[in-house]
Amino acid sequence: MASFSATSKALNFALLSSLLWISMVSLSVSSHQFQVGGEKGWVKPAGNKTKSYNAWAAGNRFRVGDTILFKYKKDSVLVVHSADYKSCNLSNPISKFQGGSTVFQLDRPGFFYFVSGQPGHCKSGQKLIIRVMHHSAIIEPPASAPSPTAGGGTGGGSGGGEGWDSDNWGPPGLSSTNKLVVASYFTTALEGVFVILYLFM
Q1: Cα–Cα distance for residue pair 37/69, rounded to 1 Å
Q2: 113-127, pLDDT tens digit by residue?
Q3: Contact (Cβ atoms closer than 8 angstroms) between residue 115 and residue 122
Q4: Which residue in 57, 64, 61 sits closest to 27, CA to CA?
Q5: What is the CATH number of domain 33-136?
Q6: Is 136 left (phi over 0), alpha (psi -120 to 50) or beta?
Q7: Rounded CA gap, 44 and 10, in Å?
Q8: In the predicted structure, residue 190 carries a pLDDT above the cut 60
């Protein structure tokens, strides 16, 4: 009987260790790196495209832990306060980066302000505001149910029905962030069960 209890504890410990490792790996993989400006990188906008970087940022969703990559030549990246961003004041940066390639980690929710360190570039539109979402702000409400078709059915067909995204599991509005949060809660609950089993066996 004693050897069965020792074997059971060893098995529970191995399962718990595996789950903890999987949780750490899934959380470390959950962050994403965005290249500022896409392929063109961090350059002075041409012509009247003074809002191109903020349009790029508006098309992305940033979370705590994500990183942004600045690629540039003969330039720099300044992290500044909001007032300095608005006035293109380069004399009081929070941080300054040079070297052609800068990775900046978004370590908190809220706003981050970036400008070029080259005189005149900020006023030409080489500036960027990144809004990092708080977890509670990321969760989107579920989409409304699709309306029935004229025949009283729901549309049917082999495509899986309206209202469902065939590329992702779950209804629309369930982003990859939400899926990660749900998976993280599930994994944590499962780990708790194994801890309890380990302690009482």
Answers
A1: 9
A2: 999 999 999 999 999
A3: yes
A4: 64
A5: 2.60.40.420
A6: alpha
A7: 61
A8: yes
Q: Contact at 8 Å (CB) between 66 and 32?
A: yes
Whether 195 and 16 have beta carbons less than 8 Å apart is answered as yes
What is the pLDDT confidence band of residue 112, given thresholds at 50, 70 and 90?
A: very high
Report the distance separating Cα 180 and Cα 178, nearest Å: 5
Per-residue pLDDT reduced to its tens digit, 39-56: 889 999 987 776 789 999
Axis-axis angle for helices 2-29, 176-200 (nearest 10)? 160
Per-domain residue ranges for the chain?
A: 33-136
Token match 């002075």: residue? 44
Q: Which residues contact 31 (CB under 8 A, 6 or more apart)?
A: 63, 65, 66, 67
Name which of 124, 115, 129 is nearest 48 in CA terms: 124
